[in-house]
Design brief:
This protein is an alpha+beta fold. It has two domains: 145 residues, Diaminopimelate Epimerase, Chain A, domain 1 (Roll); 164 residues, Diaminopimelate Epimerase, Chain A, domain 1. An eight-stranded mixed beta barrel has the order 9-10-11-12-13-15-16-17.
Length: 332
C-alpha cells in the first residue's frame, strides 16, 4: 500500500505540506531537470497530496530533493493545485523553521543561517533562535526585477487594463484593485478571484516573458491585486491568485519580492527601506530591497522578506489499490 508521510505547517494561514517520506526522489542533474522529471513521472502523487480527499484546491506542498549546488544545505521543489512552481516564499519561511527544528542544519543562536536551492536559484534563509526555540524567518531572494511597467492587457469582459509585471522567483502581473471597483481588504473574495484570474489568462495569452537564466522560469504564475499603497506606513494589502485560481492566504513571499522590484524600479522604495504587506488573513510580511544589481538586461534588486510559520501537525497518507476516487479530485 502506498504510504506518504508529511509535516504540516502554515505561514500566515497558507498551508505548507512538507513531504518527509514515501515520495520517490527525482534523479536529474539539475534542480530544473528534477522539476521536469516530477512533472512527467510523479504528477499523480502531486494530485494525491494536493487534491481532495487529502487536500483541497488551495493546498500547497514541498518535496525535498538532492541539491546540485555545493553551497546549498538543502533543495526543494514546490507543488500546488496545478503543477510545480519555481519559487515560494511562504514555503521557504516554513522550511527555515523545519530545517532548524529537524536537525537538517546545525542550530545556532541567536540566528541560524541556511541556504535553500529552489528551482529559481539559491535562497539565503535566516531563522531566529532563542533559548533553543526557532521563530521568525527572513529570506534573501534571487535577483528580482520589473519585466514591464504600464503594460496594457486586453481582458475579456473587463477591457484594457494597465499592469506591471514583476519577477520575484516567479512572474506576476501586479495591478491596483480599485480600477475594478474592488478593495483587497473588503471586497468579496470571489470577486477578487474572478478579476485576477481573468487578468492572468489574458497575460498568459498576450505577454511574451523572458528570463535570462533559463526558459523554464519564463511563465506567468499569477496576478496580485493591490490596494495601491507602498507599505511604508500601514501595511499595503494585496490578494495573490496563482496557478489554477489558487488564493494565497499569506502575503506571498515571491509576490512581495516582485512588488518590491516593481516599486524600486518606480522609485517608490529605496534600498534598505522596510515595507509591510498584508494578506486576506491579516498576516503581514516585512520586505525591503537590500541591494541593486542586474539580471541580464534588467535592473534588479535582491529583496529580503520576513514572516512567521507555525506547525499544525503530522500526517500519514495511504492509498488502497482499488480507490480510484482517492487518487485525487477537485470540485468546481
Amino acid at each position: 500500500m502506498l504510504r506518504i508521510e508529511t509535516v504540516e505547517m502554515h505561514t500566515g494561514g497558507e498551508p505548507v505540506r512538507i513531504v518527509t517520506a514515501g515520495f520517490p526522489k527525482p534523479t536529474g542533474n539539475t534542480i530544473l531537470a528534477k522539476r521536469r522529471e516530477v512533472q512527467e513521472r510523479s504528477d499523480a502523487l502531486r494530485r494525491l497530496l494536493m487534491w481532495e480527499p487529502r487536500g483541497h484546491a488551495d493546498m500547497y506542498g514541498v518535496l525535498q530533493v538532492e541539491p546540485d549546488l555545493e553551497d546549498a544545505d538543502l533543495a526543494v521543489l514546490f507543488m500546488h493545485n496545478q503543477g510545480w512552481s519555481t519559487m515560494c516564499g511562504h514555503a521557504v519561511i516554513a522550511l527555515g523553521r523545519f530545517a532548524v527544528d529537524h536537525g537538517l542544519v546545525p542550530r545556532r543562536e541567536p540566528e541560524t543561517l541556511l541556504r535553500i536551492q529552489c528551482p529559481c536559484g539559491l535562497v539565503e534563509v535566516r531563522v531566529e533562535v532563542r533559548d533553543g526555540q526557532s521563530g521568525r524567518v527572513r529570506f534573501r531572494s534571487v535577483p528580482a526585477f520589473a519585466a514591464g511597467l504600464d503594460r496594457v492587457l486586453e481582458v475579456p469582459g473587463i477591457g484594457p487594463v494597465m499592469v506591471d509585471i514583476g519577477y520575484g522567483g516567479a512572474f506576476y502581473v501586479i495591478t491596483a484593485a480599485d480600477q475594478f471597483g474592488l478593495d483587497p481588504r473588503s471586497s468579496r473574495l470571489r470577486d477578487l478571484v474572478e478579476v485576477a484570474d481573468a487578468i492572468s489568462q489574458a497575460g498568459r495569452a498576450q505577454l511574451a516573458l523572458h528570463h535570462p537564466e533559463d526558459p523554464d522560469l519564463a511563465f506567468l504564475y499569477g496576478t496580485i491585486l493591490t490596494d495601491g499603497g507602498d507599505g511604508s506606513g500601514e501595511p499595503s494589502a494585496n490578494v495573490c491568485v496563482f496557478a489554477d485560481r489558487e488564493v494565497d492566504r499569506s502575503p506571498t513571499g515571491s509576490g512581495v519580492t516582485a512588488r518590491l522590484a516593481v516599486m524600486h524600479r518606480r522609485g517608490m522604495t529605496g534600498i534598505g527601506q522596510t515595507c509591510r504587506f498584508q494578506s486576506v488573513t491579516g498576516a503581514v510580511f516585512e520586505g525591503r530591497a537590500l541591494l541593486a544589481e542586474r539580471c541580464g538586461p534588467y535592473p534588479a534588486i535582491r529583496a529580503e522578506v520576513a514572516g512567521q510559520a507555525h506547525y499544525t501537525g503530522q500526517s500519514v497518507f495511504t492509498l488502497e489499490e482499488d480507490d480510484e476516487i482517492g487518487r485525487g479530485f477537485l470540485l468546481g
